[in-house]
């Protein structure tokens, strides 16, 4: 959407006239996410925003909105750096998320002073130095693993747990461990586990390695071949099942 400045009134006009020297400006639409600021959360449909294009807005539950709805939230220039002192909203990737609304209810269970302190069961996130990150965040600050779905952030002596179901305090010497991978990837490795793409076609979840399938993508409900080292499970088609007894009886009567 384009607009101009009406020099007589100082207000925006709907059209521009470049020949007369009008100043061309781009109007920022409300509710829009800034370029390259969208992200996804494993297990939750849709896209969410880290930074809003309108400086007076900020990501609230992942969508750009007026941040004044979050009491004492610290938000400016399209992002939040604090989510108040309450126990309902927590800070997550530049926005404020509520524990009883999606997607916040998939991430965090308990909030203290605007920060997540206890994660939801099987949360796709972990807490590091009082900051909530996705398990798949490979940035230097996060230190997660690519394509990781759930994880733990376990301490060495001198620290406290910060993984799924853990709480956050001052910690030292934590170790990140991926527990499960995103759909289509299998957890590989003994100690430093990584997620590799499943080599079985139409496989949703691989176990122990990328060649052994334990769950198929729809319409295949389960692997059609028992997973063996020499013969990985196949997800080529839906397993055939016999019709219920009542259905077979009706079919028999019709054929008679």
From TrEMBL:
Question: Entry's InterPro entries?
Answer: Giardia_VSA (IPR052798), Giardia_VSP (IPR005127)
Amino acid composition bias (Pro residues), ranges on this chain: 220-230
Domain of life (superkingdom): Eukaryota
Question: Which stretches of sequence are listed as region Disordered?
Answer: 219-256
UniProt name for this protein: High cysteine protein
């Amino acid at each position: 959407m384009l607009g101009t400045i009406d020099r007589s009134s100082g207000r925006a006009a709907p059209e521009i006239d470049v020949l007369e020297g009008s100043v061309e400006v781009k109007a920022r639409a409300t509710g829009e996410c800034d370029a390259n600021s969208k992200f996804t959360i494993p297990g939750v449909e849709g896209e969410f925003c880290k930074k809003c294009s309108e400086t007076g807005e900020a990501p609230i539950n992942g969508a750009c909105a007026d941040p004044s709805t979050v009491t004492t939230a610290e938000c400016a220039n399209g992002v939040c750096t604090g989510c108040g002192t309450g126990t309902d909203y927590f800070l997550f990737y530049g926005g404020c998320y509520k524990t009883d609304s999606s997607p916040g209810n998939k991430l965090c269970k308990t909030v203290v002073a605007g920060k997540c302190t206890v994660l939801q069961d099987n949360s796709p996130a972990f807490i590091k130095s009082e900051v909530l990150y996705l398990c798949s965040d490979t940035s230097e600050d996060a230190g997660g693993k690519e394509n990781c779905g759930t994880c733990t952030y376990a301490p060495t002596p001198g620290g406290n747990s910060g993984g799924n179901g853990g709480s956050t305090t001052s910690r030292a010497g934590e170790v990140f461990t991926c527990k499960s991978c995103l759909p289509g990837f299998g957890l590989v490795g003994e100690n430093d586990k990584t997620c590799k793409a499943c080599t079985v076609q139409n496989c949703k979840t691989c176990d122990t390695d990328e060649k052994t399938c334990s769950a198929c993508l729809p319409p295949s409900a389960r692997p059609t071949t028992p997973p063996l080292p020499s013969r990985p499970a196949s997800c080529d088609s839906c397993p055939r099942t016999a019709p219920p007894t009542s259905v077979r009886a009706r079919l028999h009567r019709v054929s008679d």
